Amino acid sequence: MVQEIATLQVKLDATKDEDEQRALEEDVTGKILWLCWCGICAEVDELLPKVVDCIGNMMELCSLMKSTPYTDPGGDQARLRQIMLDAGAGTSKHRLWLAARTAEQTEWSGTARPAKHHVWLAARTAELAKCPGGANKCLGTS
Length: 142
Prior knowledge:
Elements: H1 2-14, H2 18-55, H3 58-67, H4 75-88, H5 93-108, H6 117-129, H7 135-139
Helix pairs in contact: 1-2, 2-4, 2-5, 5-6
């Protein structure tokens, strides 16, 4: 995973297109967050049995967990959580961006692009990210 992050960072450093940079930044950030999350989970998995042994009563622990209020993550926290989960699911915003750009180029080949084609591209990338079965399935290229 560290090598993947390094490879993405090299691509990011060499990229001039702002939309592509944002997609690569999300991929790098997501992979770093996912790696940290996996490390935290491994630590919790190791420590949790010790904690349960100290408490001695599983019902007491369940009661404590149920009484903990849920806090709705703010916009930034929710966005970072989504980036991390996308990385964990193997969703690459850069690959989605490239697929959307290819679709745009195919759609507009031989015609003049609209003045706000970058808005269309961002919307198409978001649409492809939600596609069940992956972007290739929605594009009909799988």
